[in-house]
Design goal:
Layout: E1 4-5, H1 15-21, H2 31-47, E2 53-58, H3 61-70, E3 78-83, H4 86-97, E4 101-106, H5 115-124, E5 129-133, E6 135-136, E7 141-142, H6 145-153, E8 159-163, H7 175-178, E9 182-186, E10 197-202, H8 204-212, H9 223-231, H10 242-258, H11 260-280, E11 284-285, E12 296-300, H12 307-316, E13 319-320, E14 322-323, E15 332-336, H13 343-359, H14 368-377
Parallel strand pairs: 1-13, 3-4, 3-5, 5-8, 8-9
Antiparallel strand pairs: 2-10, 6-7, 9-10, 11-12, 12-15, 14-15
The structure holds 4'-deoxy-4'-aminopyridoxal-5'-phosphate.
Residues 9, 60-62, 65, 87, 133, 136-137, 163, 165-166, 186 line the site of 4'-deoxy-4'-aminopyridoxal-5'-phosphate.
């Protein structure tokens, strides 16, 4: 029984991307690989629109988070963390460990920190950086990034670091236009690649800041160590994950073929249809409607449904979803619907959820969600 992995990362990996991971590994100095790597870096800069640099290194999103902040700050700098959930909070701990002075603006889970509050806070101190999680995977909240970018632009010294791990390649992120100074992300979500790549884009202001810091404490994640390699991948600093870089290249090819704007629009359509179908089945969603992510849904159980049992039966019906985090553990499941998933995946998922509810005693659901899904997708 094949299981559809509908957790919010890793997302389903399409065959053509899997094939790249299954290729015979070559030397990292192989001229064809060097050319491929160079193309990947160029495409990332084109798609996410920056005059700066793109970095692709072996690691996960958390490593990218470290890389994002470590290159633009030094001990005792003031930084502001905007937290919409578990991954926002992760940036608090990470920054504190680096000896930064951290102020936090936190929202109640399922809501946002109002942009006016961010602006007010930025006026209080000379913050050297602000971090914002574009989509917090724990709450399904999508930050109003374009508006935040406009506000941060007014503060010359404050660099905007965006955690796009659960957003990049599904929610618009254009660095230089939107005032994003550093975008950090990973391969396993909306890129639809297996886990294992930390991807970081840095705009001109961030690169200038890095230069001004001199030698930094971190080694593996130092921009200055990697810049020569990203410009000319024939050079060596750390062994590149050859097959994952090929996989990313194929993912970018798919993205270019689809068109990035079309990809963003598709994610909206899919998310709204999935969310309507879930509501039709009687679920409620944690994230307030006007700030709901397109990459995943954070779905609250109705009375009488127990988390462990629901997810076990759903897996028997062929679909794997993730549990809730923090205070929502046991109260919610998290359903990813991003990347290269297709219509069949969506229908199968909603149908499996219906069969699960049916087996758990809610009998009047068969066909309802699937009907709603189709209706929405045909609009
Ligand atoms: N930020 C966000 C928004 C995430 O969703 C995740 C992973 N779920 C991370 C950071 C950390 O990424 P990783 O698990 O790849 O280290």
């Amino acid at each position: 029984n094949r299981k559809l992995v509908m957790i919010p990362g890793p997302t389903p990996v399409v065959r053509s991307i899997q094939d790249q991971m299954g290729r015979e590994t070559v030397a990292f100095g192989d001229p064809d690989f060097v050319k491929d790597f160079k193309e990947v870096i160029g495409d990332l800069k084109d798609i996410f629109k920056t005059e700066g640099e793109a970095f692709v290194v072996a690691g996960t999103g958390t490593l990218a988070m470290e890389m994002g902040i470590a290159n633009i700050t030094k001990e005792s700098y003031d930084v502001l963390v905007v937290s919409h959930g578990f991954f926002g909070d992760r940036y608090v701990e990470l920054c504190q460990r680096k000896g930064l002075k951290v102020d936090v603006l936190k929202s109640e889970w399922g809501t946002i920190v109002p942009v006016e509050e961010i602006e007010k806070k930025l006026k209080e101190k000379n913050y050297k950086a602000i971090t914002v999680t574009h989509v917090d995977t724990s709450t399904g909240i999508c930050a109003p990034l374009a508006e935040i970018g406009e506000v941060v632009k007014k503060f010359e010294d404050t660099l905007l670091v965006v955690d796009g791990v659960c957003a990049t390649a599904a929610e618009p992120e254009y660095l230089d236009e939107m005032g994003i100074d550093v975008l950090i992300t990973g391969s396993q979500k909306a890129f639809g690649v297996a886990p294992g790549l930390a991807i970081v884009l840095a705009g001109p202001k961030a690169l200038e800041r890095r230069k001004s810091l001199g030698t930094i404490r971190d080694y593996y994640i130092d921009f200055e160590k990697w810049i020569p390699i990203m410009r000319d991948p024939a050079k060596y600093f750390g062994t590149p994950p050859v097959n994952l870089i090929w996989a990313l290249k194929e993912s970018l090819r798919i993205m270019k073929e689809e068109g990035i704007e079309n990809r963003y629009k598709r994610h909206i359509r899919v998310a709204r249809a999935m969310q309507a179908a879930l509501e039709e089945l009687g679920f409620t969603l944690l994230a307030e409607r006007e700030h709901r992510a397109v990459t995943l849904s954070n779905v609250l159980y109705m009375d009488g449904i127990e988390d462990g049992e629901f997810r076990k039966v759903l897996a028997e019906e062929g679909v794997v979803v993730a549990g809730g985090l923090g205070a929502y553990a046991g109260k919610m499941f998290r359903l990813g619907h991003m990347g290269n998933i297709d219509f069949h995946d969506l229908v199968s998922t909603i149908s499996a959820i219906e069969r699960t509810l049916y087996r758990l005693g809610i009998k009047d659901v068969l066909g309802k969600g699937v009907g709603k899904l189709a209706e929405e997708l045909l609009k």
